[in-house]
Structure to design on (82 residues):
């Protein structure tokens, strides 16, 4: 039997800061662990897979709100080929 793989995202409780583990099957799924604020964007879409979370310390129930906005930024000017 082949075992499923995933990445873990450490999500801080909004009340006490205790970190809960969220499993994500988005992205490469290489059994890595990420802090929420440093998590690659391709891993985040599945962060609420087992939400809502209940904090083991203070019993707050919560989930992660994902924003779908983006920003296009200029990296450099194109070189004039004339």
């Amino acid at each position: 039997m082949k075992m499923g793989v995933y990445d873990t995202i450490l999500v801080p409780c909004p009340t006490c800061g205790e970190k809960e583990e969220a499993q994500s099957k988005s992205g490469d799924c290489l059994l890595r662990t990420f802090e929420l604020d440093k998590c690659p964007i391709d891993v985040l879409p599945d962060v609420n897979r087992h939400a809502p979370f209940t904090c083991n310390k203070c019993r707050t129930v919560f989930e992660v709100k994902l924003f779908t906005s983006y920003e296009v930024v200029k990296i450099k000017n194109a070189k004039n080929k004339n």
Q: What stands out?
A: Strands lie at 7-12, 19-24, 33-35, 53-54, 61-62.
